[in-house]
């Protein structure tokens, strides 16, 4: 059991840190010290100095820092704490939100809440692991591609609108033709970005093998593979299929309590929408071209399952296959169980 817990509420420019020290009796710990600092290395140093003073000689191995995921504002902090051989736990904001008792928002109070969450859930601590350079670069490429795709989508919509009304107006005709050139240029940039992503994943010594295994699964393409590698931190940050399915928002949830609460399975929306989008797109492709998934889709359709449920289930199955090929260090084999039985039968015949 750790002796000091530091909750950190992170924003773009500042961090709020609250330090709590549990009592020997196991009672709820009280706030020892609080501070507000700049979200940069000089601020991190001042925060650690404040904690060290409050620790009164307690070794840093007995400290646990905890912060919410904030879309990137917390990465520099996590890297700094880790570089000093201290533990920081980067928890999903939705998990911490479950213990909020009010609807107010206050940075100081939030940092104390995060510290209390870390104290109450010590058995769930997951120390932050810095991403390697290849994963960070791959993330930059993926987000850049995503930005380009969004730009192209907006241009296509506007271009189609212009086409409808540009017949008798020279200015609108110019805008339509120019937007078509922009769409073509952005498409070329997207393709170039994908080439860079493939080069990075196929040549990196730490990523290449996993990339090869995942891309072999019919339905999962280059972009979906990149997203999986990034958000599992190349299967170092997240090693469990179930945890990643929950993180992506494709794991079904249900509520069942007493005699009155019986809610159907539903998909959580407090999740990573980027990965969920790519996985559902992969599922749609797999439902048409992956032999195993085509057969599954047909069975579910005959059973009367809604199309959305079928696609989410296929996304789950694809994710399960992903973690299986990574665990077994092998490529995907269609109709694996049938082929396995055939090999066993041939071996018995030879014997």
Automatic annotation (TrEMBL):
Record-linked Pfam families: DEDD_Tnp_IS110, Transposase_20
Transposase IS116/IS110/IS902 C-terminal domain mapped to chain residues: 214-296
A GO molecular function held by the record: DNA binding
Stretches assigned to the Transposase IS110-like N-terminal domain: 6-159
Protein keywords: Coiled coil, Membrane, Transmembrane, Transmembrane helix
The keyword Ribonucleoprotein is assigned to this record: no
Listed GO biological process terms: DNA transposition
Coiled coil: 176-203
Top-rank taxon: Bacteria
This protein's record includes keyword Coiled coil: yes
Membrane-crossing residue ranges in chain numbering: 211-232
NCBIfam families given in the database record: transpos_IS110 (NF033542)
Descriptive protein name: Transposase
């Amino acid at each position: 059991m750790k002796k000091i817990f530091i909750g950190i509420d992170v924003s773009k420019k500042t961090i709020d840190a609250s330090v709590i020290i549990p009592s020997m009796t196991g009672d709820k710990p009280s706030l020892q010290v609080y501070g507000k600092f700049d979200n940069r290395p000089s601020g991190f140093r001042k925060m650690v100095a404040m904690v060290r003073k409050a620790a009164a000689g307690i070794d840093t191995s007995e400290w646990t820092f905890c912060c919410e995921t904030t879309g990137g504002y917390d990465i520099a902090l996590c890297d700094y704490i880790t570089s000093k051989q201290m533990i920081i736990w980067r928890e999903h904001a939705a998990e911490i939100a479950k213990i909020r008792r009010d609807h107010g928002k206050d940075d100081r109070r939030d940092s104390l809440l995060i510290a209390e969450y870390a104290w109450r859930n010590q058995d769930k601590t997951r120390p932050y692991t810095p991403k390697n350079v290849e994963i960070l670069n791959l993330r930059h490429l993926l987000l850049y591609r995503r930005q380009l795709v969004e730009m192209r989508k907006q241009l296509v919509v506007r271009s189609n609108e212009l086409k409808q009304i540009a017949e008798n107006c020279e200015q609108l005709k110019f805008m339509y033709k120019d937007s078509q050139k922009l769409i073509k240029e952005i498409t070329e940039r997207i393709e170039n970005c994908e080439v860079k992503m493939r080069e990075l994943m196929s040549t990196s010594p730490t990523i290449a093998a996993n990339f090869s295994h995942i891309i072999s699964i019919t339905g999962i393409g280059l972009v979906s593979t990149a997203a999986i590698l990034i958000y599992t931190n190349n299967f170092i940050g997240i090693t469990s299929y179930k945890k990643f399915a929950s993180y992506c928002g494709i794991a079904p949830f249900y509520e069942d309590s007493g005699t009155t609460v019986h809610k159907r399975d539903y998909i959580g929306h407090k999740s990573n929408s980027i990965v969920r989008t790519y996985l559902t797109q992969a599922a749609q492709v797999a439902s048409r071209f992956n032999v195993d998934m085509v057969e599954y889709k047909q069975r579910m359709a005959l059973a009367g399952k809604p199309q959305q449920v079928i696609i989410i289930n296929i996304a789950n199955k694809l994710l399960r296959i992903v973690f299986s090929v990574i665990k077994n260090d092998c490529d995907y084999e269609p109709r694996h169980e049938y082929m396995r039985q055939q090999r066993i039968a041939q071996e018995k015949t030879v014997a």
